[in-house]
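Fig. S4 source data, part A: sequence.
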Amino acid sequence: MDFVDDGKCFACGRKNPIGLKLEFRMDGEGRAVATFVPREEFQGFSGVLHGGIVCALLDEAMAWALILRGKLAVTVTMAVRFRKPVRIGAEVRVTGEVVRSGSKRYALRSEIRDGAGELAAEAEGTFLVVSEIEQNPGAPGPAL
């Protein structure tokens, strides 16, 4: 199977009109980081982000921790802990980081923190690298 980015990824695709449009960058500690303001159309209970979207944020942060290192990978396992509700309309910070690396399998973790820095959700996952990403000289990130 070929993995092709057509820009329509629900989490980070710029061409997905209903997507989250996340933009990750590498911070000084080697973590993938993005900020996100949950919109009302992504709620579960009134004023609270749906748990499935929380999972998507955590999964995407782990994936980008590898993408920003030039590795395209797929999720093999993911375990999530919900600590507190993520509020609609309130900016959160999403981070993903590599915990252990192998030749093809990587252990990662991610978390969502609210504006006060309180932990809202966290995840651990195993990812399988499916290809290396060609770096585009002069571009801000890898060419997907």
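Fig. S4 source data, part B ends here. Helices lie at 51-67.
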